[in-house]
Amino acid sequence: MSRLPFARRKSHSEPGPGDAGKTGSWRVLRPLIDVQLCIPAKTKKMACFNCWLYCPDGVVTRTIPPTIDYDYCKGCEICAEECPAGAIRMVEETEFVKREQ
Amino acid sequence: MHCIESGNVAAAYGVKLARVQVIAAYPITPQTPLTEKLSEFVDAGEMEAEYIPVESEHSALAVCIAATSAGARSFTATSANGLLYMSEQVHWAAGARLPIVMCVVNRGIGAPWTIWNDHQDSISQRDAGWIQLYACDHQQIIDTVIQAFYLAETVSIPVMVCYDGYLLSHTYMPFEVPEAEAVDRFLPPFKPAYALDPRQPANLNTVTLPDVRPDIRGDLAPGYTEIRHNLHFDLRQALGTVAEIDAQFKEAFGRGGSPHVESYCCDDADYIAVALGSLAYQLRDVADMLREEGMRAGVCGIRIYRPFPDEAVVEALARAKGVIVFEKALSYGNEGALCGDIKAALYGCDPRPFVRNYIVGLGGREIRTADLLAALRTATNNRGATCEWLGLKL
User: Fold this and answer.
1) Is A71 inside a domain boundary?
2) What CATH number did the domain enclosing A67 receive?
3) Does residue A91 belong to any structural domain of this protein?
4) Can you give the pTM of this predicted structure?
5) Domain range holding B309?
């Protein structure tokens, strides 16, 4: 469904992934989860999930192990800050570009 | 119903007849009796509206923005520094395309404090993206308020109805109050182009990026430039809508016929005075006196200031030798804002009338008809000066 004529006269957005496009392209640092340290991954229990809870963009899954949707993760680093196990480290995006090259 | 009442009460009757659903206002002289009257109507059960008392003008318009976003017909009113205090929300309401109607009971701006009339308050908001209509007498106040809701809701742009503090707000004049059934036939209930709905949650007026962006469906959502372009485009189109609504109003109530400018003896006039608000009617007496003296004088009252009715202005003024713009406001450091607009509208005319500018009546300084007469008598002499001042006592 395309936007109604009136919707082209003002700015509004509906809830759902993808408003403003793939905002993952804004990311400078990429969070990587170490499943050896991650509590739900290690214990195989639906526990902790601080990363899922705190993520302001809702891009972390509440699964074993948790996964991150890099299409929309802006790399804000909150998950890494909140992880009680120190399982999430932030890696420069340039590292991945170098690896691809 | 025929009645003799103040201009503020005329506005209040218009709001009542428009079946406004939400009123939020903060009292300020000379607007106060208008909001007091509305409060009485609601208290007495004569209006089925929510009257929301607020602690400031900023909140008054914020309440109207929220109410209109939820689909309610809403109204506020203010004057002078109150309008400036809500200025951030004034711009917001236009960008959000909310059809709010606001009466601006024109008063000079402090510092220094003045409670009396001039037009600096509404003129200072001319670039906010609102439609600005000016009324010249009590009948025009009530008629314009009723039409303003129809206009705002048709084009999804907020409308200011401006009228002179004290000169109109507190003086008593006879006017006709239309029958409620006739107004109901003229003004349909508010059907918002978009309204908040909990079943379809949405984030309104979200941040735009410098360029267009895809939305959640992958469709391109307009960027800031597109949204602002569309506001401007729709404002220009609104000139036609104003004329259509005026024609419908005239058919229903027998009044109107001058939606853009109100010309008085302009057809054969060599010299035409231009003004906003009640001053345009005062100038009619001056034109009559000049015609008795043998000068072919006319008056052009500007009824809609934004969008600017440039075609109607050219139609009314282009044949004159000289145009004299009397203004109760000033673009400080330049000239009267209206004068600049008149000059711009006439720029492409050949031959082109000269345009002179008189600043009058700031802060309620009495505008003496004799002074207007003297100024127009000397209008044949185009001194080419920037704005001159009438009644100045240096």
Assistant:
1) yes
2) 3.30.70.20
3) yes
4) 0.92
5) 261-389
Q: What's the average model confidence in pLDDT over A77-98? A: 96
Does residue A79 belong to any structural domain of this protein? yes
Q: Which of A11, A22, A72 to mutate: most B Cβ within 10 Å?
A: A11
Q: Do B221 and A3 touch (CB under 8 A)?
A: yes
The burial of B381, by beta-carbon neighbours within 10 Å (0-12 exposed, 13-18 middle, 19 or more buried), is given as exposed
Interchain pair A18, B218: CB under 8 A: yes
Share of chain B above pLDDT 90, in %: 90
CA distance A1 to chain B (A): 8
Please report how many Cα atoms fall inside a 13 Å half-sphere around the Cα of residue B186, on the Cβ side.
30
Q: What is the pLDDT of residues B201-250, one digit of tens each?
A: 888 999 888 899 888 888 888 999 999 999 999 999 999 999 999 999 99
CB B84 within 8 A of CB B109: yes
| Confidence at residue B214, expressed as pLDDT on a 0 to 100 scale | 86
- B226 contacts in A (CB within 8 Å)? 8
CA-wise closest residue to B150 among B257, B243, B277, B262: B243
Residue ending a domain, choose from B171, B186, B201: B186
Please judge whether A11 and B216 are an interchain contact, meaning their C-beta atoms are less than 8 angstroms apart. no
B-chain CB neighbours of A72 within 8 Å are: none
User: In what helix (H) or strand (E) does residue B389 lie, and over which residues does it extend?
Assistant: strand B388-389
Q: How many domains does chain B have?
A: 2
**Is residue A83 a part of any domain in this protein?**
yes
